[in-house]
Amino acid sequence: MNALAGIQQFAVHQKITMMVNRYAIHAVGPDGQEGALLAVAQQKRMAFKEQVTFYSDDARSTPVFGFRARQMMDLGATYDVTDAAGTPIGAFRKDFAKSLLRSTWHLDAAGISAVGQERNQALALVRRFVDVPIAFHFDYHDPQGNLVMSVERKFSLRDRYLVTLPGGRVDGRVAAAMTVALDALQGR
Predict the structure, then answer these.
(1) Which of 57, 58, 87, 124 could be disulfide-bonded to 102 (CB atoms 3.0-4.6 Å)?
(2) Neighbours of 187 (CB within 10 A)
């Protein structure tokens, strides 16, 4: 079952651990309050090939989707998002050249093709030269200019994100994978 199907808003929280990066994905209600746990992600550190697996609960007994780099150690690597059976459901990649001044990602999922960039050009430049935590926000637009996804980083001791999918057009699993990738891979 896809708990993220048709979802229009959810939150992602990074959990701090010693050996792995963990993330919790929660539903967000109409009142803005966080609700049910939808998935838990885990990324092994120091892996040769980037891979993150999402599970149905904290016990991490049932994988439900994930993403994995096609290549090892590639600055412009493409990441495939797959369901629990390994069937491709989407992909994303960082546009290395455009990201030198303003981080840019390409996202593809079930009839949606979008480009995401840091919302604020000035903050994007500051982030490159100042080593302080700055909240960054990404907006993803389809070729017609319609917003299909936004990711807003919230200030807190650990990384927190609010993800909005207007109209639920983007598969929530692909959006969750992209959000975790922004946290895990953005600084590279």
Answers:
(1) 124
(2) 7
Residue 33, H or E segment: none
- Token look-up 């936004």 returns 150
3-state SS, 16-29, equals CCCCEEEEEEEEEC
Q: Is residue 120 part of a domain?
A: yes
98 — pLDDT class (breaks 50, 70, 90): confident
* pLDDT tens per residue across span 140-164: 999 999 999 999 988 766 788 999 9
Nearest to 165 by CA among 179, 182, 153, 154: 179
Domain that residue 69 falls in: 9-185
pLDDT tens-digit readout, 47-74: 556 889 999 999 999 999 999 998 876 6
pTM for the full predicted model: 0.89
- Could you give the number of structural domains in the chain? 1
Task: State how far the alpha carbon of 3 is from the alpha carbons of 31, 38, 50, 56, 176, in Å.
Answer: 19, 6, 24, 9, 11
